[in-house]
Q: What sequence folds into this?
């Protein structure tokens, strides 16, 4: 007798035993915030990012050194990952065609260079991580050098606690002496071109053993300098508009490039040219800290002293007036006050 015989006129009857349940492990698994430990993760340097894909370097300085393409893990969707970061990477790290690894964490950063969109914006734009030098590139002419923009770069470098260097290009077009006089009070290494030729070897010697971020206004020759230091970098170069005096953006993304010189290797971190550099994120105390001799004297200042020319009973101003800081004291005070004013004016 078949099961159809056990029916009434309305059709077959069923009970719980006739119903089959298809197990769904995902639906029945209890939700948890625990994440895998990723004990097998490997450390890689982030070289650049393009449309959500990160180029990272594994086994740096080893015979097995190679680049890998990676994406960020879902749990890092709110974590900024920038050029210079050291990332924890899992998955297929062979670097073969069509392979894709996954970034599951970021190591603690030693430095962080930031800027804001403008001076009133407290939202930080992270430029690069773990750089220990900033090389500021300006042109003596075409476009004209902007002291205030250089001041802003310097303030950002001081805030990030990284060393600043200055390169002046196109000195065959104009004499940069008057421009450089504004920075005489700073511990700032300056390189200038001679007869249109840049001192590439001298600049390269300063890059060895360091991660150096290159910054500068569009059209000043930054990409040309990068190409001279890193043959094969093929960074696009542009020209300056004769009507507006502005350069065309040629570097569209931040990228780390390996510098190899006679004295060793280092990292050149090329950034897109910018025409403004917001300081809404800066801690002004870091500016004074960079002037170690003046910071010591500032301990004698009244509480809340601004150290500006109109500050009453400023110990630094008094020390300079009395000649206690030597022949460079006035220039260093002037540099400090100019940078503090640059920050305060925002």
A:
């Amino acid at each position: 007798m078949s099961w159809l015989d056990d029916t009434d006129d309305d059709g077959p009857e069923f009970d719980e035993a006739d119903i089959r349940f298809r197990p769904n492990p995902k639906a029945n698994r209890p939700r948890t915030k625990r994440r895998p430990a990723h004990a097998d993760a490997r450390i890689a340097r982030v070289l650049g990012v393009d449309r959500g894909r990160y180029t990272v370097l594994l086994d740096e300085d080893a015979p097995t050194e190679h680049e890998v393409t990676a994406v960020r893990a879902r749990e890092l969707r709110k974590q900024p990952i920038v050029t210079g970061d050291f990332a924890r990477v899992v998955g297929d790290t062979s670097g073969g065609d069509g392979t894709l690894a996954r970034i599951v964490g970021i190591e603690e950063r030693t430095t962080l260079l930031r800027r804001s969109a403008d001076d009133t914006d407290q939202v930080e734009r992270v430029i690069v991580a773990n750089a220990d030098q900033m090389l500021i590139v300006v042109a003596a002419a075409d476009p004209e050098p902007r002291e205030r923009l250089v001041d802003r770069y310097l303030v950002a470098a001081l805030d990030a606690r990284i060393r600043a260097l200055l390169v002046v290009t196109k000195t065959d077009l104009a004499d940069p002496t008057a421009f450089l006089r504004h920075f005489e009070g700073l511990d700032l290494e300056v390189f200038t071109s001679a007869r249109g030729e840049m001192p590439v070897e001298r600049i390269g010697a300063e890059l060895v053993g360091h991660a150096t971020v290159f910054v500068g206004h569009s059209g000043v020759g930054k990409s040309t300098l990068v190409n001279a230091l890193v043959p094969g970098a093929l960074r696009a170069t542009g020209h300056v508009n004769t009507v507006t005096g502005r350069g065309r953006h040629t570097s569209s993304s931040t990228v780390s490039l390996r510098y190899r010189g006679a004295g060793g290797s280092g990292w050149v971190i090329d950034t897109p040219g910018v025409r403004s550099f917001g300081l809404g994120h800066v801690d002004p105390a870091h500016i004074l800290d960079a002037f170690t001799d003046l910071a010591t004297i500032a301990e004698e200042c009244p509480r809340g002293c601004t150290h500006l020319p109109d500050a009453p009973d400023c110990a630094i101003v008094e020390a300079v007036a009395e000649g206690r800081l030597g022949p460079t004291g006035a220039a260093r005070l002037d540099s400090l006050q100019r940078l503090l004013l640059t920050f305060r004016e925002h």
